[in-house]
Every structure is written in structure tokens, then in C-alpha cells.
Amino acid sequence: MGLDGKVVVVTGGTRGVGAGVTRAFAEAGAQVVICARRPPEVPFPGVKFRPLDLRDPAAVRDFFAALPRLDVLVNNAGGTPYRRLTDADAERHARVIELNLVAPLMASLAAYEHLERSRGSVVMIGSVSGGRPSPGSAAYGAAKAGLENLARSMAVEWAPRVRVNTLVVGMVRTELSHLHYGGEEGIAGVSRTVPLGRLAEPSDIGAAAVFLASDAAAYISGASLHVHGGGEPPAFLDAATANKEA
Predict the structure, then answer these.
(1) Which of 63, 111, 162, 189 has the fewest CB atoms within 10 Å of its CB?
(2) Which residue among 82, 140, 181, 219 is the active-site one?
(3) Contacts for 173 with CB less than 8 Å, ≥ 6 apart
(4) Are residues 25 and 66 in contact, defined by beta-carbon separation less than 8 angstroms?
(5) Phi/psi of residue 213, nearest 5 degrees
(6) pLDDT along the chain (246 residues), means of 10
(7) Is 140 a catalytic residue?
(8) pTM of the model
């Protein structure tokens, strides 16, 4: 699925899932530009970095206006710390929604004219948190639910010249996994809950993003592709005492 010569912007593409997406597009032959507040600790060969605060509307518009061309926008920037609703004020939670929902909307609007000219596509990096309860990250889950719905609406409004899809991402092993799951023992325990027996690697998400942006997905728009290793088996199956395998 070569993307030779295509210009791809990956927001927040400096580490974690974003770094996996950046590498996948670069390996597919794309010209990749990553934007974030801070540069990557180790530069990616052949990849350009541009500093950008994605919550600054004027800066976002200026960034995209300065691009000579754009074929693919990957709205990856986002995330949240563990924070129960009553442990922070509403303004703190609103900033999580701003980063994970409002910022992708602003970036997509700023990129639209480029994408319309190139008949390009948008790939939203969503989360399984948007489709189930997310205790400890409720604002994040709400934002990701909204992001998936936003992508479906954009896919209708911007057709037929711009495709818009969402990757619904499950648990991924990154440099910050210990903050969510604990050390190696915690990661191993969480991995056993995944049907495929492991957390995703950032490269797994990158490969799926490249697919959705490529001509192989030319008739896919408004879709949500789950990249979660089989999902989360119902908890009652472990608790039940009937129908257990010997």
C-alpha cells in the first residue's frame, strides 16, 4: 500500500501511538510532517517536525495554510491522565475534551481545502473508551465517543472528495503504559484479558492508519475500524461457574 509522494500530517506524532503512525507512513513512502508542542526525543529520518499547539485556533489555521499540499490528516494528538470526575474541577475535564475532540475538529476544518483539492482523507485516532464506561477517564471517553460521531458526519458532508474514518484503538504498549497498567507484571496481567494475548504495538495502529489512507480503502468512508485484539470478553464469563472448559 504505497503512498509515495503523498503529504501526510500526523498531529502529536512524536511518541507512543503517534510515533508508530509516523513510522508507518514514512515506511510507506509518504512525506510526513508531525506537529506537536515538543519535538521528538529522537528525530525520525526524513520526517519534518513543526511546533504547534493544537488548542490554538489561529496557530492551527496558519500551520495548514502554510502547507503547499496535503493528502492525509491523521488526528492523533490526545490523551488523558487517570482522573476521577470528582477529583478535578469541570474546567480541567473540559480541557481533556478540548484536546481530544475540539482540536481534531479545528485541524480538520483548517485542512479541508487542501484535502478537497487532493481528494484526500482524514484518519481519526479514536479509542474503545468511547464505546464503554471509562471510569477514571470519563471526559476522555466522552470526547472519543464524540470524535467517532464527528467523523461519521464529516464523511457524509465532505463526500465524495474527502474520506473520513476512525481507528477505534484498544490498549497499546507505549513508553507510558506503566502509568495506566503498572509495571511488567501489570502489563502481563492486562495482556491476558485481550483475546489475542497481548497489547497492541504502535506499529499495529500505524499499519491500520496507512490502510485507511491508501487506495486499498478507496470505498471506505464513515467507518470505524476496531484495532483492539478482539476486544474485551464479558466479565461475567470469568465469574460464572458454568460452562467452564476442563
Answers:
(1) 189
(2) 140
(3) 187, 198, 199, 200, 201, 202
(4) no
(5) -85, -10
(6) 90 96 97 96 95 97 98 97 96 98 98 98 98 96 98 98 98 81 87 93 98 98 97 87 77
(7) yes
(8) 0.94
